[in-house]
Design goal:
The structure holds two protein chains of two kinds. By secondary structure, chain A is mainly β. Helices cover 0% and strands 49% of the residues of chain A. Chain A has no helices and eleven strands. The radius of gyration of chain B is 14 Å and the shape is globular. In chain B, a hairpin with a 5-residue loop joins β4 (32-38) and β5 (44-51). Classes of the chains: A mainly beta, B mainly beta. Chains A and B meet through β5, β6 and β10 of A and β4, β5, β9 and β10 of B.
Chain lengths: 113, 115
């Protein structure tokens, strides 16, 4: 069974530029999560999708972050414009039902200069 | 609001030692508790999932227990090996604004096993 795929693995941008990350969850998994992990911290949930609907985006900075999950499969997370404090690893995870085990992708390490 | 605390923040042990990592959570009305491993520069690997009706789960040299009444979980690693060196994260559930479940993570315990 293929795992959660993410791209790119690394991205370096300057502040005020925009960036997008892509995630392909495990086939058949209804729930998809985007987490932000700042160095030395645990992951923090940014947004959770159930199929293509948003279940929770309470910690998503909506003035600069946006995410979509078209057709209930792949998802993209966008930051526009980026700030220095957005430097972090962005992790995508998926689960079959939403209250069961979560499986994580390798993450995208973003550096904002 | 669910808050998860992990102690210690870092741990260094000699190879072969048995060790315990601790996790505490504030909201005991939990459904599942999950332990993860994270290697440097990598994503998270799920180690053990303890459902609310269970008190412990075992996988190889790993054993995780859950005590909902005290709001604590422990991860026991037997006969530690250098390959166990990683950051171990505990995650407890919270209810989302939409009524489903999400994970709240601790900051992790960075384990170093010295040969």
């Amino acid at each position: 069974e293929a795992g959660v795929a993410q791209s790119p693995r690394y991205k370096i941008i300057e502040k005020r530029q925009s960036v997008a990350f892509w995630c392909n969850p495990i086939s058949g998994h209804a729930t998809l999560y985007w987490y932000q992990q700042i160095l030395g911290q645990g992951p923090k949930l940014l947004i959770q999708f159930q199929n293509n609907g948003v279940v929770d985006d309470s910690q998503l900075p909506k003035d600069r972050f946006s995410a979509e999950r078209l057709k209930g499969v792949d998802s993209t997370l966008k930051i526009q414009p980026a700030k220095l404090e957005d430097s972090a690893v962005y992790l995508c995870a998926s689960s079959l039902l939403g209250w069961d085990e979560q499986f994580f992708g390798p993450g995208t390490r973003l550096t904002v200069l | 609001k669910q808050e998860v605390t992990q102690i210690p923040a870092a741990l260094s042990v000699p190879e072969g030692e048995n060790l315990v990592l601790n996790c505490s959570f504030t909201d005991s009305a939990i459904y599942n508790l999950q332990w993860f491993r994270q290697d440097p520069g990598k994503g998270l690997t799920s180690l053990l999932l303890i459902q609310s009706s269970q008190r412990e789960q075992t996988s190889g040299r790993l054993n995780a227990s859950l005590d909902k009444s005290s709001g604590r979980s422990t991860l026991y690693i037997a006969a530690s090996q250098p390959g166990d060196s990683a950051t171990y994260l505990c995650a407890g559930p919270a209810i989302t604004q939409g009524g489903s479940e999400k994970l709240v993570f601790g900051k992790g315990t960075k384990l170093t096993v010295n040969p």
